[in-house]
Amino acid sequence: MRSNAGVIAVTVIALFLGVAAVTQIKAQDVYSRSLELETPASLTTLIANLSERNNAVKDEMLDLRRRTETARDAIASGTGSLTEAERQLSQLRVFAGMSAVSGAGITVRVDGSFDERALSDLVNELRNAGAEAISVNNARVGPRSWFGATADRALTVDAVAVRGPWQVRAVGSPEVMYVAMTRTGGIIGQFELIYKGTRFDVSKDSALDLPALSTPLR
Amino acid sequence: MCDTFHVTATRSTERTRLGQSLVLLLPALLFGLLVSVQWRTQSERNELTVRYNTPLLDAAKTLQNEQSALKLQLADLRAELDRIQSSASTQSGAAKDLQARIDQLKVVAGLNERTGDGVVITLDDARGSSAAKDIEKSICHNTDLTDIVNQAWRGGAEAIAVNEERIVGSSSIYCVGSTIMVNGTLMSPPFSVLVIGPQNELLSAYDDPTQLRDIKQRRDVYGLGFRVSRAGGLRVPPYRGALNVRYATPR
Fold first, then answer.
1. Is A33's Cβ below 8 Å from some Cβ in B?
2. What is the residue-wise DSSP string for B108-169?
3. Phi, psi values for residue B182, rounded to 5°
4. Which residues contact A100 (CB under 8 A, 6 or more apart)?
5. Cα of A93 to nearest chain B Cα, Å
6. How many Cβ pairs closer than 8 A exist between chain A and B?
């Protein structure tokens, strides 16, 4: 019967179009990015990272509240708030890489072939693990530092050549940074797979001395 | 799609019968959608993921919301301390001098909003059929962003923000699974990198064929979204996170 044939035809077409529509959506978004699709392992890492950051903000809030009180008291008693201003200045100078610093941290030694993108990734990883100050050999890495390479296989930090073997030093929590670098599947493990023959050593240090940026930021 | 149906309908001479057929059209279409969606969902999620994800997702979202609230409170506290400081700095010359140095450092450290001309870089996962060839190469990774930021500093950038997060000395562009985190803020593509700085130098840094070769090749072969354009009147927000100076002491 013609009518049935028509119904079947339209149904088949509609079914086909329905499938095609979804396939189309899928093709446009080949890789779906949403928290909902993350694995439990990734979500757990994210949660640990977020809560660490929230705690850092909370710590700083406590610190700021205390400093605000002290500054208020100082002004009320007529002694002024020079102490608080000096403290703020000193904190900002460290944060901006403008002062040489000392402190506990870790050292990553890289001996062998390496490149500027890997160095940039390493610095990124150290920052994520809470590094407060970083240097590569004798060059301090500042807020606007960039990494490059020279024709004769040296790396550069802000256009200044640094030659291997490299010592990347970072001031911050030695335990947190050490684990972040050396954990299974972490950045050092990945480097060892990619840069075969290059030696990577990570050590905790109780006292590191890092230089200030050689050219202060404008 | 709607046009196709319309053409089919007008060609028919038996309009009433076709009307009946059309009644079936919507359910059939829905059924088709349902079958496909079902097939997709099953293929992408295993049982373990389904069982543990709900509480983990809730926890992650709660922490992210908490962080946004905390950052606002932190900004208020900073502003309050600044107010006390600046009212006190009218007292003496030494205090005034200190305050001026603090203000200048805040600018270079990224704690103030910056406005100016520069370039905007957009980065996005490839969309369309060429992307299916190699997913890894057709989506953007956190290392693409670190390369783009590195190139901006090389080109003389003064201030950078990635999707409204200011890049400062402590910033990292971190990747977990397919989620990217900048200054503790979760984000996903498309990315918009705002760079304030000398436009010509920045543009030639990005045009340099020896730089960002991997990104450019993936754009050409797999359709990765990567575009650099000149832009005026950019507004880059201040850094809103913790300053976190606990282990480092100035020498």
1. yes
2. HHT-S-EEEEEEEEEEE---SGGGGG-HHHHS--HHHHHHHHHHHHHTT-SEEEETTEE--T
3. -125, 125
4. A140, A209, A210, A211, A212, B250, B251
5. 7
6. 324
Instruction: State the pLDDT confidence band at A56, using cuts at 50, 70 and 90.
Output: very high
Closest CA to A94 of A59, A50, A131, A122: A131
Q: How far is B7 from chain A (nearest CA, A)?
A: 13
CB of A10 less than 8 A from some CB of B? yes
pLDDT at B3 over 60: no
Burial class of A140 by CB neighbour count within 10 A (0 to 12, 13 to 18, 19+)? buried
Six token digits for residue A101: 């610093």
Q: How far apart are CA B196 and CA B161, in angstroms?
A: 9
**Widest CA span of chain B, in angstroms?**
95
Q: Determine the average pLDDT of the residues in B145-150.
A: 96
Say whether A11 and B25 touch across the interface (CB within 8 A): yes
- Is A190 at the interface with chain B, CB within 8 A? no
| Domain regions of chain A by residue span | 1-31, 35-94, 102-210
User: Which range among A33-37, A73-77, A124-128 has the greatest average pLDDT?
Assistant: A124-128
- B65 at the A interface (CB within 8 A)? no
Q: pLDDT class for B22, splitting at 50, 70, 90?
A: low
Q: Is B143 on the interface with A (CB under 8 A)?
A: yes
Q: What is the DSSP letter of A35?
A: G
ipTM, 2 dp: 0.83
Touching B: A residues 81-100, CB under 8 Å:
81-82, 84-86, 88-100
Locate B244 and state its tokens: 């976190």
Residue B25 in 3-state DSSP? helix
When the candidates are 2.40.50.100, 3.30.70.1880, 3.40.1180.10, 3.40.50.1820, the CATH number that belongs to A102-210 is 3.30.70.1880
Name all contacts of A159-163 with Cβ < 8 Å and 24+ positions apart.
A160/A214, A162/A136, A162/A137, A162/A138, A163/A137
Which chain A residue has its CA at the smallest distance from B73's CA? Answer: A61
B164 forms beta bridges with none
